[in-house]
Write a structure and sequence with these properties.
It is a single chain. With 469 residues, this protein is mainly α. It folds into two domains: 303 residues, Citrate Synthase, domain 1 (Orthogonal Bundle), CATH 1.10.580; 111 residues, Cytochrome p450-Terp, domain 2 (Orthogonal Bundle), CATH 1.10.230. The chain has 21 helices and two strands. A two-stranded antiparallel sheet has the order 1-2. Belongs to the citrate synthase family. InterPro entries: Citrate_synth-like_lrg_a-sub, Citrate_synth-like_sm_a-sub, Citrate_synthase, Citrate_synthase_AS, Citrate_synthase_euk, Citrate_synthase_sf. Keywords: Transferase, Transit peptide. This is Citrate synthase.
């Protein structure tokens, strides 16, 4: 038996070996001619800090909104109180990533060598810097993530010990929390570092975390549903290819391209949703990116947030069993009304902010029209898209009768053979990391404070509005 002290020394040596290998691989695949993402971001920091200082100095006292009692008791919905640089969600226009629509991102961001969809590396670069990267910059980022991708042995062992009955999202957040052991920020903070350097450590932690997520997510999938074996990361391939290959779908070029699209469009959706806000809140306390993202993932696991695409697929599957191949307008309409009259909502329709068809839904629909137009489940989705808005409008209890992103993604994944709906939120979690971690880095770069809104009791609110209870 190995003594505890000896096991610790062995573990430390293994981790040091991982870090050294990652650094050497990065040097191998990077080029001095192409500025790294870290260098590009560092050059932007002084200007961003000055912009914020000027804005607060000249306009800090201006009122930008009001808060109603309904908003206070309605989950703070619509209250303008967060800063989120990566994306803004317009109720009529949909999401914009650094000012760019999804179609614009699909056109402008570098694409995979064998596909038509933008690379996740490009959306991460865009969200962090506000700039569209070059192909060389994206290739360098792919290489860096591949070089940082080794997962510590103890994390793999931790996942191997998890029972298959433990939900994939619980395993995912558990593994991400365990990576706190590798946090360069936590180690540097314990020794004492200058506040101005916080962002650099947050950057390195975020890069390590993003790089390791596909292997962790694939390990969970392969352990629960397959043989437990996970392919090694190919150092010369892009992020989405490696993730697809580790899941077991690397030979299907269309699936790889779908995963590129999926990771891009699910990455960011403003800062007020549960996963984004939670990650931001925990990070504001100077918890490392590992702990912050783990908290966000646990919010994403909730049935009112990340589990929605799974619920949509289950609902569609139930419908298909009941109506069979007869996708007539009458059958679809009847099933919709049966759902509503039964006290259920139509999953995948409606949105807290949007008042139009979600552009993320549209991008997936366009992918399906090109790749799987004859698929029965896609045809069902199309029929629901045709009929549901009218039924929901007539029903009158849905502010937005149009589909959101969750109304489509499960059907696409199922078509290519990833049929385990219980796992879908893990894919969402890998994607969401690409959106929330840039904001953590930005927060530390500009010196954002800990988040601490004011709260009152119901009695105090009654007093404020002049009510008697």
């Amino acid at each position: 038996m190995i003594a505890p002290a000896s096991r610790f020394a062995l573990r430390a040596a293994q981790n040091a070996k991982f870090q050294t290998a990652a650094f050497n691989n990065f040097r191998r695949y990077s080029t001095a001619k192409t500025p790294t993402l870290k260098e590009v971001f560092a050059a932007k920091i002084p200007g961003e800090i000055e912009k914020i200082k000027k804005l607060r100095k000249e306009h800090g006292s201006k009122v930008i909104g009001e808060v109603t009692l309904d908003q206070v008791y309605g989950g703070a919905r619509g209250i303008k109180s967060l800063v989120w640089e990566g994306s803004v969600l317009d109720s009529e226009e949909g999401i914009r990533f650094r000012g760019k629509t999804i179609p614009e991102c699909q056109e402008l961001l570098p694409k995979g060598p064998d596909g038509q969809e933008p690379l996740p590396e490009g959306i991460f670069w865009l969200l962090l810097t506000g700039e569209v990267p070059t192909e060389a910059q994206v290739k360098s980022l792919s290489a860096e993530w591949a070089a940082r991708s080794d997962v510590p042995k103890f994390v793999e062992e931790l996942l191997d010990r998890c029972p298959n009955t433990l939900h994939p999202m619980a395993q995912f957040s558990l593994a991400v929390t365990a990576l706190e052991h590798e946090s360069s920020f936590a180690k540097a903070y314990a020794k004492g570092i200058n506040k101005k350097d916080y962002w650099s450590y947050f950057y390195d932690d975020s890069m390590d975390l993003i790089a390791k997520l596909p292997t962790i997510a694939a390990k969970i999938y392969r352990n629960i549903y397959k043989d437990g074996k996970v392919a090694a990361v190919q150092k010369d391939k892009d992020y989405a290819y490696n993730f697809s290959n580790q899941l077991g779908f690397g030979e299907n070029k269309d699936f790889v391209d779908l995963m590129r699209l999926y990771l891009v469009i699910h990455s960011d959706h403003e800062g007020g949703n549960v996963s984004a806000h939670t990650t931001h809140l925990v990070g504001s306390a100077l918890s490392s990116p590992f702990l912050s993202l783990s908290a966000g993932l646990q919010g994403l696991a909730g049935p009112l947030h990340g589990l929605a695409n799974q619920e949509v697929l289950n609902w569609l599957t139930e419908m298909k069993k009941k109506i069979g191949d007869d996708l007539s307008d009458e059958n679809i309409k009847k099933y919709l009304w049966d759902t509503l009259n039964g006290g259920r909502v139509v999953p995948g329709y409606g949105h807290a902010v949007l008042r139009k068809t979600d552009p993320r839904y549209v991008s997936q629909r366009e992918f399906a029209l090109k790749k799987l137009p004859e698929d029965p489940m896609f045809q069902l989705v199309s029929q629901v898209y045709k009929i549901a808005p009218g039924v929901l409008t007539e029903h009158g209890k849905t502010k937005n009768p149009y589909p959101n992103v969750d109304a489509h993604s499960g059907v696409l994944l199922q078509y290519y053979g990833l049929t385990e709906a219980n796992y879908y939120t893990v894919l969402f979690g890998v994607s969401r990391a690409l959106g929330v971690l840039p904001q953590l880095i930005i927060d530390r770069a500009v010196g954002a404070p800990i988040e601490r809104p004011k709260s009152f009791s119901t009695e105090k609110y009654a007093e404020l509005v002049g009510a008697k209870l």
